[in-house]
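Progress narrative, work stream C.
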Amino acid sequence: MDFSINVATGWPRARVAVRRGTLAFLVAFLALAGTAIAGSRQLGIPATFEGGTTTQFDSISVANGSFRADDSRAASGSWSGKAVYGGGGANGYARGHLKVNWSAGDTVRYAELVYLPKGFYMALQGQCVLMRADNWDVYPNDADRVGIGIYRSDHKGHLFWLNESEGISHEVGPAFTIPAGRWNRIVVEQRLGTGTSATSRVYLNGNLVVSTTGQNFPGRPMDKIRYGIVAIGAGIQTNPLTLWIDNARR
């Protein structure tokens, strides 16, 4: 058995050469595999921008920027989503939202295709969060957050969790480089939890870049996940930022 990457999903896929006498073994193996993943949440239908709209998201939110369908660059099909932060240092974001219902103990998966243009890292002066689940609508003063962000300290991707009242971002696993000038598929798989039973994996373009155990979740349920330029370093980020996303899933 060897492995290739499914371009449409970003997940590894197996190529199996079936020979006489092995079919029964494969059937049994697949049955066991199905039992092993039963109860975990699979990636759902992606939110895309085909047709030139953002209507596949449950909602969008924009401040000091724009979030719209764009046909100048696409990972597949003819459209992608262009997220723009206008710069100037004021708080801003450009993001699409999907509803979730995540609690400690849940196994969740979320993903997106993201294109960082050449020059993105030169323009980046603070953090830029690319995907984030949260409960801000319920707890606007001390929201819990889980997601993927690029840090200003090393210009690398980080899986993180935090509670806003603490003011501390807890990193989960090692940092990883998200190349600019190409489409990148980021897939996160987590068993959410506040203790050692929690697990986290991140795949970048089909390669496992984070695999760790330990707390990855603040504790309170989350009801929304956001994609795009989800957050920036307000007061620090004076340069404009632009990126493209596609096939946002949860």
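Work stream C, second folded protein:
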Amino acid sequence: MSVYTVEKWGSWMVCVDGRPIQGICCATKEEAEALVPRVKARYMELPAVKLYKDKAGEYRWRLVAGNGQIVADSSEGYTRLDDVERAWGTVREIFEGWASQGGVMHVFMPCQAHQHDGFCKVDQGNCVTP
């Protein structure tokens, strides 16, 4: 679960997991503290990408839904932070492209209609593999 704090970064800012939220600057610590409940409520609804180091000391990414559930994660660890950032960037670009095309995604799964060991392309629950 994310940690919400108020920290001094030139001006007072609301931070999530130690990182300031851009665009939320306050003149006083009290102003920033008063915003924390609203910011927390808003950010709880949004998915977040968490970059972290695993037990082996490798960097990984994790996509966390607003309810705190992990919905996707990296399948491998990276020795350098910029490598894991690049890997997440690739995943993000794929999803942005998918969303820009109306959310159409090809799903491949085992199919009872065909007698083979592979997977079939499925659209709205129906096999569309010739």
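The first helix runs from residue 29 to 45. No further action is required on this item.
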